[in-house]
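Slack export, channel: ligand-projects

TW: morning all. Re-posting the request from yesterday since it got buried. We need the structure predicted with the small molecule present, not the apo form. The ligand is adenosine-5'-triphosphate; the SMILES is in the block with the sequence. No rush, but it would help planning for next week.
GE: picking it up
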Amino acid sequence: MHVRFLTIRNFRNYAKCRIEFSDKINVIVGNNGTGKTNILEAISVVSNIKSFRGVPDTAMIKWGEAAYHCRIDAYNDGETVFEVGCAAGEGKTSKKVKIDGVSIDMFSEYIGKFPTVVFSPADVLIISDSPDIRRRYFDSILSRTSAVYYRTLVEFRKVLTARNKTLKMCKARGKVDTHELSAWDTVFARCASQLIEARGRFLEIYNPLFKESYARISDDDIAPSIEYIPSARGNDPEAIIEHLGTVSGRDFLYGTTTIGPQRDDFAFKGERGALFNNYASQGQKRTAAIALKCAEGIYIDRLTGSRAVIMVDDVFSELDEKRRRNLLSMLDRGNQVVFTMVYPERMDFGSLSSCAFYSTDGEGTVRTL
Ligand SMILES: Nc1ncnc2c1ncn2[C@@H]1O[C@H](COP(=O)(O)OP(=O)(O)OP(=O)(O)O)[C@@H](O)[C@H]1O
Ligand SMILES: [Mg+2]
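GE: finished. pasting the full token output, ligand included:
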């Protein structure tokens, strides 16, 4: 799938803007703070109904305005129009999504229809930061490639919130209500079991893609492996219920559920089992972060049968010459790619299939060069 037109209204520094993209390589050039990443963000909002920057919707509404609207005329065998609109009201925001002019009430029926992958300098946090960032990252890939996973995750989060609320109430009363807790445990264990199994199956496919991408970018530096570390013992519902029973005292003490998919981690480990984060250089961590995204693109393409739009937000400036060249050639595999950069002259675009160049001026206009 590729973006033919992006039309945005009152989004970040853009009052009204329409860009026509090439179906191959697109390069957005401009000084710092002129609105390059904002364009990628608008595309990511249409894809995922939220920003890849992890900011609230209100941050993306142009200052002084009440609502934003983003529309993509996409092409994949035929034309499909995707729209996301968001209005800020008294204390809450409302969002609407449409495909070909028809409103979609269930977001699970929209997510994944227009797949994208964003490379960002902040990706290194997936390697080096806390487990919740890794969980969120892998959950997001799984949710975009499986509507069943997405729905199970939504249901799991609801039951987790309810179970934790019950635990807090029990703590306040100073007495465990095992009856009330066990009512949640059945649904909790069923959802948890499905999520744990799906995460395990996912890594079997994704891990080799990640390792291969890492080796290609770095010219055969040894890639780390990603190991899934579930916090629950066993992955069938009965085993999870039993484990919940054995930790109920601790759950009661902390007023929260201490085992389950919300506590799992994914560890990056080197050849002898050493934690990648403890021995890798800054450049190796960046390489791993980029390899994650390359693998994500290949994984999404495989599972959805549609080619994801690849967005690369200024990650080249942090790579050495060899890695820049390798990444560029890896990205040129038929998907539409949108790059942002400050210094295009440092890149060798000559080796790529045709490139279109655009410039941002900070005044809310984008010119085709
Ligand atoms: N809600 C908003 N309304 C209006 N302008 C905004 C809003 N949010 C951010 N901006 C403006 O957008 C600009 C930042 O845009 P963006 O992050 O796309 O820059 P960039 O070109 O990617 O810069 P860099 O090269 O530094 O990454 C800033 O000038 C900021 O003032
Ligand atoms: Mg930027």
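GE: first-pass observations. The chain has two domains: 1-115+306-369, 125-305. The pocket of magnesium ion (ligand 2) is lined by residues 36-37, 313-314, 340 (CB under 6 Å).
TW: perfect, thank you
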